[in-house]
Amino acid sequence: MNPRHYGLLRLHNTEFSFFSRLFDAVLIWSSLRFLQYMLEIPTVADYEYAGLLAVVLYFLVAELCSVYRSSRLENYGDVFGKIFLAWIIVCVLLIAVAVATKSSFNYSRLIIFSWFALAPCLISCERLLTLLVLRYLRAHSSNTRSYVILGNSLAAKKLPQQIERLSWTGLVSLGTYDNLDALLNDIETKTIDYVFVTYSTEEQGKINAAIKALGNSTATIYLVPDVLLADLLGSQWVMLGNTPLIILNDHPFYGGIWTLKKLEDLILGSIILVLISPLLLLITLAIKMTSPGPALFKQRRHGLNGEIIKVYKFRTMSTLDDGDLVIQATKNDSRITTIGKILRRTSLDELPQFFNVLQGSMSIVGPRPHALSHNEHYRRLIDSYMQRHKVKPGITGWAQVNGFRGETDTLEKMQSRVDFDLYYINHWSFGLDLKIILLTILNGFSGKSTY
């Protein structure tokens, strides 16, 4: 049985993250109202404003403190520590606002300081209950993840026993590999979520080869060290029981960050789609009137975690290529229609992909999806190529606003595009997304190699 299909929690991670944030907001707000009721303080606007400001500040600070980042290997101390740190910062900010606006005398000191103590305790209790439920479900084969072990060191022998004792992690073993080639063959056909690399430090060559080869998969890779590796101290560490793990690559969207990205896509995508709807209609009519065939063209691409999606585009060619061989458009390509030349030059052919955004298969900002045949070709030539698919593909991206759009007629051009995509994934922020969107609007998403 495929561990990916154990239960429904995995399929609705975004919704659970949203409700976690909603519960926090309710607890912050209701705890203040509860104290007002208990101490018989009448409801006045000042308390309403304080509660609303606290909710907004907590969401912002919680993102900075990674409160909503979901990790099944995280211990209770780390979870509660981040909650209290975020709330302490919020309290300091609230006091600063009250002093700056000279409104501190409008509040009961007893209520405010009781609220400062009560709110984080309620949030921690809610989070503890959630963790207990999740850990119970994972221990009973729900919401599980699959893992394999690569290597034959002492750590490889001890790790499965440690994981088995920590059944609440929900990790299901798919085996141990000593041969990297065998793992690479199986990773193409099996759903493998985590790979624990357990080679000893004397086998540095094998470690380097494994990191390089596994970079072309969508699995999350952990290096299990037998000593503290000085050159990896800058990497993120998590603890699996008493075993330290180093995260070598993973996507940046956990918990609330994923919700923020989702809201960005839904809100901005809906607004943009409404604004461009007259233009979509005009382009559709122009295509239908100037060349035979459908106005829209659906092409299969790889989406999140390498899953195949259908990407919408306006038809710009006389052919609808979507097979094992897709030839990139070149200068003076005879397949491109008259209207198609204009659409491709201005990137207006990409506008229907906002429907993909609302469907959830794409984001507004992310690595541009390539044709399936191109992925199969370049993943064998460029290191970490498939890491582009650790996030949803986008209509525009960091590579595109930096000039890497259109035909990639050399390996060096594709390598540069991949480098920019990986930089985006590793340095994602809401501000970076807004910067890319702004640059796309200002530059018209054009490029010298766009045909």
Structure characterization notes:
The chain is of the alpha/beta class and 451 residues long. It has three domains: 3-139, no CATH class; 145-249, Response regulator (Rossmann fold, 3-Layer(aba) Sandwich), CATH 3.40.50.2300; 255-443, no CATH class. It has 14 helices and ten strands. It has helices at residues 13-38, 45-64, 76-100, 109-139, 154-165, 180-187, 204-214, 255-290, 338-346, 353-359, 372-378, 398-401, 411-426, 430-443; strands at 145-150, 171-177, 194-197, 220-223, 236-240, 243-249, 296-302, 308-314, 363-365, 394-396. It has a six-stranded mixed sheet, with helices on both faces. The chain has a two-stranded antiparallel ribbon with strand order 7-8. The protein has a two-stranded parallel sheet with strand order 9-10. A hairpin with a 5-residue loop joins strand 7 and strand 8. The chain is flat and about 80 Å long. The relative contact order is 0.08. Residues 1-7 and 227-234 have low confidence and may be disordered.
